[in-house]
Amino acid sequence: MKIGLFFGSFNPIHVGHLIIANHLVEHSDLDKVWFVVTPHNPFKKKSTLLDNYQRLEMVYRATKDYDSLSPSDIEFNLPQPNYTINTLAYLEEKFPDYKFSLLMGEDNLKSFHKWKNYKLILEQYHIYTYPRLSEGAVETQFKGHEKIHHIQAPIMELSSTFIRKSIKAGKNVKPMLPEHVWEYLDEMNFYK
Question: What's this model's pTM, rounded to 2 decimal places?
Fold first, then answer.
């Protein structure tokens, strides 16, 4: 089984995440996408994150109606801060019959050369990218690479940061969130 790993803080998960993940399952050779909820991204301030299990709950609620999309808390028990290469090694050991690939926006591919052990990741795993509007260019070493697959998915310019700021400002963000996630956020008064 081919699993695409969609890493993120999902703070909160929104319809853009679901559209991209579903598109990649439907328009590539991936069988499933796992939303890997990241406890702490080394490049983000921890203070802005909701609790790990609250974000996992949102991903669970967002994906429960999709057979090919699932939440994953695989990184919760790994040493922090964690790096993608460590998670991949752990997953290989735990699920030897699965083939794992990374999903990332083209904006992340532009900084991929800064990732820990990025050459090893590229040697051992396929990367599926989707379009994002962003500054800068993809490094030459990644252009036309046999392990990097560009999927023409819809461009989603919706961010969790925008949603959090909008909630804080009292704006209606209901259309930007899966219904079950909106209900949970509203019930828990998150981001207000």
Answer: 0.91
**Rounded distance, CA 66 to CA 6, Å?**
15
Distances (CA, A) of 146 to 126, 127, 150: 8, 10, 11
The tokens of 26 are what?
């439907």
Question: Could you report the per-residue pLDDT of 146-187, keeping only the tens digit for each?
Answer: 999 999 888 888 999 999 999 999 999 999 999 999 999 999
Q: How far apart are CA 147 and CA 31, in angstroms?
A: 17
3-state secondary structure of 31: coil
Query: Nearest-5° angle of CA 29, CA 34, CA 40?
Result: 135
16 within 8 A of 158, measured Cβ to Cβ: yes
- 134 closest CA partner among 104, 165, 166: 104
